[in-house]
Specification:
Distance between the termini: 29 Å
Mean pLDDT: 88
Shape: globular
Radius of gyration: 20 Å
Number of strands: 9
Length: 223
């Protein structure tokens, strides 16, 4: 994964040279087809976008940050729903489900056990959403003084699941936390059912956070 920060792009000529050398070196060394992933802060800079496309990168998806209020919604169907913190003995199963759907998440690469342990050490929690006793969603979250942040949420099933899941999460966290706190979620453009469900709620704000581009480097021919 290549992560680009504003500081790295301040001098375009220097940055372009570094990017060219990096891709050239990777092309020489890799013996398998390799995907290079580029995540760039969304700042409407067309000049920056043109630079990346000139080096073979193509748009993959955009990640959006949403902020929602915590509201104690009541709905008859919520009696079928349950939010559970994943027991450590089930981390492997949760991780497998997360990685099966990685390509639609903001971080498209598989999450390793080591990275998950680092997240947990920073007080992140793994959650599973159940409806009628069946797992219908997973996500990772951490708590701040003013908000709870949901990372990489993925729901299984129909659009109806998303329509209930978002207000249910607002309700659960409203009861668990201070009503003045906010719910923050990151959703990608490859998750339209989540976008639609969020837009139906009393959204506080929406902001495009970053876009992801990919460049497929062919396998180097071997003799």
């Amino acid at each position: 994964m290549i992560r680009i920060r504003h500081e790295a792009y301040r001098n375009r000529s220097v940055f372009q040279g570094l990017l060219s050398r990096l891709l050239n070196q990777l092309s020489k060394e890799t013996t398998h087809e390799t995907m290079v992933l580029l995540q760039v802060v969304q700042d409407e800079d067309q000049d920056k976008l043109n630079l990346f496309t000139s080096h073979g990168f193509e748009a993959y998806h955009t990640s959006f940050n949403y902020v929602l209020p915590l509201i104690p919604y009541e709905k008859a169907s919520f009696s079928d729903w349950k939010l559970s913190v994943v027991d450590p003995s089930n981390y492997a199963t949760w991780l497998r489900h997360r990685n099966e759907h990685a390509l639609v998440l903001s971080d498209v690469f598989p999450l390793t056990e080591e990275r998950l342990r680092r997240f947990l050490a920073r007080n992140h929690y793994c959650y599973t959403l159940h409806r009628a006793g069946k797992a219908v969603g997973i996500f990772r979250a951490h708590y701040n003084q003013d908000y709870v942040k949901i990372h990489e949420i993925h729901l299984f099933g129909s659009d109806e699941v998303a329509q209930d899941a978002i207000p249910f999460l607002q309700r659960v966290f409203c009861h668990q936390l201070k009503p003045s706190m906010r719910l923050r979620l990151t959703v990608t453009s490859l998750q339209p059912e989540l976008h639609y469900a969020i837009l139906k709620q009393e959204m506080a704000s929406r902001q495009s956070a970053f876009y992801t581009m990919t460049n497929i480097l062919p396998a180097r021919a071997t003799r």
